[in-house]
């Protein structure tokens, strides 16, 4: 699959998730089969005003290329400015993705994320300004609309196509749904039929079968997996295997815990031990969810402050799982 001039290995993508799709996890997902990985969303204002914490979010590793860097904001001039002066110069970034789907209150209260869906004229202005200055493909992520009384995602999709967006990701929920209820795959299907640019389906892909069904039902060009990929980087490979008629082999319990250890070492090498250990607590909980005695292990992990001790707990857990068979 291609997005603009960027050739991708496959059309199973890691969706952007704040606090989840950091550099370490993107590398892991890419190595296990993701055709494209998206960064956590990055503030265009943060880049514009040279905030160091924001700059950290834009770091890229050779192993995760090609990568799409997702930005958010609502000032067309600022967004175009940071693309022209900074993102265009970054050869390690392949695609620029614009977030107009985030439902978080702290984002929408500033008029960013999914709040932009309430203002199609501003959406058009942002897309036009950014596309006009970008030397990379620009993609867009949206939801169906703000709420059930203002479902205008198809109108936004048409604006995106008219303004030169290279691909559109659609999460099949409104902003007020957050992540509740079921994603409306029929809406994604309608969008695919309404526009000519690639459509990336997003929402409620938790098992490999879900990914296959989304392709079949919506006719979308690619899928982006968010919550279903937390603690589950194997989902990319498993969907690819199912699509290609290969045997679906889920990871063993030992492989899952071993991956958590690999993730721990990688994140600590990138962010340092103090931050890495703290951030791994949630990742480990996602990895081991549903495995025998996982609550006991999770409770231990949440009290640990060193990589060595965290690794010891996980190694001991593997030994216990092997004994239990």
Automatic annotation (TrEMBL):
InterPro entries: DUS-like_FMN-bd (IPR035587), DUS_fam (IPR001269), DusB-like (IPR004652), tRNA_hU_synthase_CS (IPR018517). One of its GO terms (molecular function) is oxidoreductase activity. Residues 14-314 form the DUS-like FMN-binding domain. It is an enzyme of class 1 (oxidoreductase). Keywords: Flavoprotein, FMN, NADP, Oxidoreductase, tRNA processing. Its cofactor is FMN. Its EC number is 1.3.1.-. It comes from the Bacteria. Belongs to the dus family. Catalyzes the synthesis of 5,6-dihydrouridine (D), a modified base found in the D-loop of most tRNAs, via the reduction of the C5-C6 double bond in target uridines. This is tRNA-dihydrouridine synthase.
């Amino acid at each position: 699959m291609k997005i603009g001039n960027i050739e991708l290995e496959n059309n199973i993508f890691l969706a952007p998730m704040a606090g989840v799709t950091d550099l370490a996890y993107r590398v892991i997902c890419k190595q296990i089969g993701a055709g494209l990985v998206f960064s956590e969303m990055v503030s265009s204002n943060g880049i514009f005003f040279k905030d160091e914490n924001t700059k950290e979010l834009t770091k890229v590793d050779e192993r995760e290329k090609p990568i799409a860097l997702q930005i958010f904001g609502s000032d067309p001039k600022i967004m175009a400015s940071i693309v022209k002066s900074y993102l265009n110069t970054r050869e390690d970034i392949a695609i620029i993705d614009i977030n107009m789907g985030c439902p978080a209150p702290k984002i929408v209260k500033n008029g960013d994320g999914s709040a932009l869906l309430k203002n199609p004229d501003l959406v058009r202005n942002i897309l036009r300004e950014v596309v006009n200055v970008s030397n990379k493909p620009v993609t867009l992520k949206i939801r169906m609309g703000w709420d059930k009384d203002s479902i205008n995602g198809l109108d936004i999709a048409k604006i995106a196509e008219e303004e030169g967006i290279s691909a559109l990701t659609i999460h099949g929920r409104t902003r007020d749904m957050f992540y509740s209820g079921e994603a409306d795959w029929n809406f994604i299907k309608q969008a695919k039929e309404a526009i000519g640019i690639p459509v990336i389906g997003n929402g409620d892909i938790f098992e490999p079968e879900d990914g296959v069904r989304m392709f079949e039902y919506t006719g979308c060009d690619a899928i982006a997996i968010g919550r279903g990929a937390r603690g589950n980087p194997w989902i990319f490979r498993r969907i690819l295997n199912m699509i290609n008629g290969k045997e679906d082999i889920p990871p063993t319990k030992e492989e899952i815990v071993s991956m958590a250890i690999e993730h721990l070492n990688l994140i600590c090498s990138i962010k340092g031990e103090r931050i890495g250990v703290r951030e791994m607590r949630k990742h480990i909980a996602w990895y081991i969810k549903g495995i025998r005695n996982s609550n006991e292990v999770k409770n231990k992990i949440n009290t640990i402050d060193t990589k060595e001790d965290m690794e010891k707990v996980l190694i001991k857990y593997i030994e216990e799982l092997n004994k239990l068979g």
